[in-house]
Write a structure and sequence with these properties.
With about 290 residues, the chain is of the alpha/beta class. The protein folds into two domains: about 5-125, Rossmann fold (3-Layer(aba) Sandwich), CATH 3.40.50; about 140-285, Alpha-Beta Plaits, CATH 3.30.70.270. About 50% of the residues lie in helices and about 20% in strands. It contains eleven helices and nine strands. Strand 1 (about 5-10), helix 1 and strand 2 form a beta-alpha-beta unit. The protein is globular. The mean pLDDT is about 90.
């Protein structure tokens, strides 16, 4: 099992290759970006669990990358470690003020950087900020988003589950199940990219339970886009023999709740309504 997905944002290929090789040897999934815009785009496609970010980049500085990541609901939770030649106290303070989790200067010790990466990821998971498998927000971050809905009137929630996931995991094992969860997180992210808005929120509650918070007028289109993408690609997670014999493949079960279903006075009422909506969606699927 991988330690986590690490993104390295560094335009010096010697340093980025050294870090990639080292952290891969430590059982991390490593992705590398040489430009700030590339890093932001890669984060939209597949969330990393942590980012090691150089400040001096060819298209924008790392401060701007950090600012944009922190300003987006879908990436605001990702731990960031600045890696830079700047060692002035004011530079460090500026980075930390923007929300960076740590700051290490070049030249650096690989063992020290490894410990800082591990500690930052552990803190995020211990504080229930991220799901270790998908890198999506979880726990307290989801609760914070739900509490904010009480003060809004244009929201919609999509409560997502994977029908057949338990049977698949029993057949193919834990590692294959984690790959399906990561795939599902990517599908939901792409669906929101296509049909949602820039401030929409995607969270991983745990197991095969996910949540999307979007503007209520967009949720129907997000549901259809997510279902289309999931159904088109889920077959790749089954072996050839299973596909040949026409196995019943996994599918998304999605319940929808909007502000119009209220009024709601606390997050417990919202979550109960979302659970009920998904149970009704499941019942409708089983009856058809």
């Amino acid at each position: 099992m991988a330690e986590g997905r690490l993104m390295i944002v560094e335009d010096d290929t010697d340093i980025s290759n050294m870090l990639r090789i080292y952290f891969q040897s430590q059982n991390y999934d490593v992705i590398v970006a040489q430009r700030g815009e590339d890093a932001l785009e890669m984060c939209r496609q597949q969330l990393p669990n942590i980012i090691v970010l150089d400040i001096m980049l060819p298209d924008m500085d790392g401060y701007d990358v950090c600012r944009r990541l922190r300003g987006n609901l879908r990436t605001s939770h990702i731990p960031i470690i600045f890696l830079t030649q700047k060692d002035e106290r004011s530079d460090k303070i500026h980075g930390l003020e923007l929300g960076a989790d740590d700051y290490i200067t070049k030249p650096f010790d690989l063992e020290e950087l490894k410990l800082r990466v591990k500690n930052a990821m552990t803190r995020a998971q211990y504080e229930s900020l991220t799901n270790a498998t998908t890198g999506l927000p979880s726990g307290r971050l989801i609760e914070d988003q739900l509490r904010q809905l009480i003060r809004r009137d244009n929201w919609g929630i999509i409560y997502v589950g994977i029908q057949g996931f338990s049977d698949f995991k029993d057949e193919y094992g834990f590692v294959a199940g984690e790959e399906v969860l990561r795939f599902t997180g990517m599908v939901l992210g792409k669906a929101v990219d296509v049909e949602g808005g820039p401030n929409d929120f995607i969270g991983h509650i745990g197991g095969d339970d996910f949540i999307i918070i979007a503007e209520k007028d967009r949720v129907g289109a997000i549901v259809e886009e997510a279902r289309k993408r999931f159904d088109a690609e889920i077959g790749t997670h089954y072996d050839w023999q299973a596909r040949q014999r026409g196995v019943n493949m996994m599918s998304l079960i999605m319940g929808i709740v909007t502000a119009d279903d209220g009024p709601f006075y606390d997050i417990r009422e919202i979550t109960e309504a979302a659970s009920s909506a998904r149970r009704m969606a499941l019942a409708g699927t089983q009856a058809s």
